[in-house]
Amino acid sequence: MNTYQGKSVYKGIAMGNVIVLKDRDLQVKRCRIGDAVSETARVEAAGKEAKAQLQRLYDKALKEVGEANAAIFEVHQMMLEDEDYLESIHRMIQTELVNAEYAVAVTGDNFSEMFANMDDDYMKARAADVRDISNRLVKILQGQEDVDFSAIGPSVIVADDLSPSETVKMDKEKILAFVTVHGSTNSHTAILARMMNIPALIGVPMDLQEIHSGMKAVVNGFSGEVIFEPTEEVCGQAQKKIEEEKEKAQLLQTLKGIQTITLDGRKVHLYANIASVGDVGYVLENDAEGIGLFRSEFLYLGRNDFPTEEEQFQAYKQVAQMMAGKKVIIRTLDIGADKQVDYFNLGQEDNPAMGYRAIRICLKQPEIFKTQLRALLRAAAFGNLSIMYPMITSVEEVQQIDAIVREVQKELDELQIPYKIPEQGIMIETPAAVMVSDELAEMVDFFSIGTNDLTQYTLAVDRQNARLDDFYNLHHKAILKMIQMVVDNAHKCGKWAGICGELGADLELTETFVKMGVDELSVAPSMVLKIRKQIREIKM
Ligand code: PEP
Ligand code: MG
Fold this sequence. Notes:
The protein is an alpha/beta fold. The chain has 18 helices and 16 strands. The structure holds phosphoenolpyruvate (PEP) and magnesium ion.
């Protein structure tokens, strides 16, 4: 029995046989070739086939996990056309007279190392993408079949790291858990695992040479432990826990379609957080009463240029219509910090979390903001839509937003384009906004507290830095006092206040929040029924 401790990115427990993915062990031999022209032609043909495979993956992902998650395959297709990357392969073939497989593998290693050594976390994460496209090319050149993950039986997937193209190809019904040596809480694997509702551990310090496909494993997303070749006793305990969890999940189903009210009748609005149109399915499946945070910046990620007004309008309208009259709160773009996009040309910053991001970009580059606002106002005519502005620190910012919204309204009037001015609120995620929330409450329709950022700014703890996990204390009294202050100030002006940060899903605090007067909680879709259950047991 071998036990390893990792970091859990999704709670749950699973037990089953392991499949170890050793994709990176592709055997590539260096061979001397006589004809550089035909070898280069092989690379070109492999490139075409790789793009065709990626297009198929994109189409599949679009249907299953939505546009934002599918976009990575478009990025891979673009990377395959990167001039520097291709030139390096061609030059190597021509000058060193080596085989195509070798030139692709070496170029892939070089480029991926270059990305891995960059300071920027977003660029670092691209190392896995370069490795992914290079492996794909090598496999095609070697005539290897693209692994059919759908053929794998129910398994615990163990890997060094998982690329987005690997995870999306897997048949979700058959994946019991993910366990990886690398990866971060914000990696695609982590995001997909949460979306797929399966336990996942990252940062597990295991030696993959000692782990083999077919071994048995217990993955405990509650404790962050993975146990290989568990004893019978451990298996028995795990099985018991799995059954308990199953029973809990079944009991939760009975909470669908009923109200989220306390024992004495106080209503709490229970909404879900999403990142793409494709996520609406999870919202409906878990019976959320609305969408409390649509992180619209995901529409801007993984592409080469700004999404047009029409593209955005269609996305927002689709979500509003799918939710059929239920509330949909769309947050305007929160680009910057951990969500970097090349075409925004944000430049290097020493401290991007406190840098040029979110509403600051919108106020400094109003054309970008106005495109999104036009799309939102137009889409508001098709459902129960609200707009929410992120990273607010002052009354003046809200005044500036107001002026820009009025300009957009005037433009739409002049063009006689139908629209609606929806409910507009702000995120309270800076200590400054908390402290002036009495004044802000008079200017907006609602507050939604972003505890993820509010905690990092209040405690001066970078939320991306895993080394500071022990200091990122979401239960800190300062945060709870701030939440109370914000709720009280909202209520004094007859406005509502909710929580859309991760803390909103903390079951240990549900009762506290309800008793504080929090009007709305917006959480990951998989948490909705658990919170409804908790609220229904509260006596005020
Ligand atoms: C927050 O900061 O709590 C929040 C909900 O926004 P994000 O996590 O997208 O920064
Ligand atoms: Mg935030």
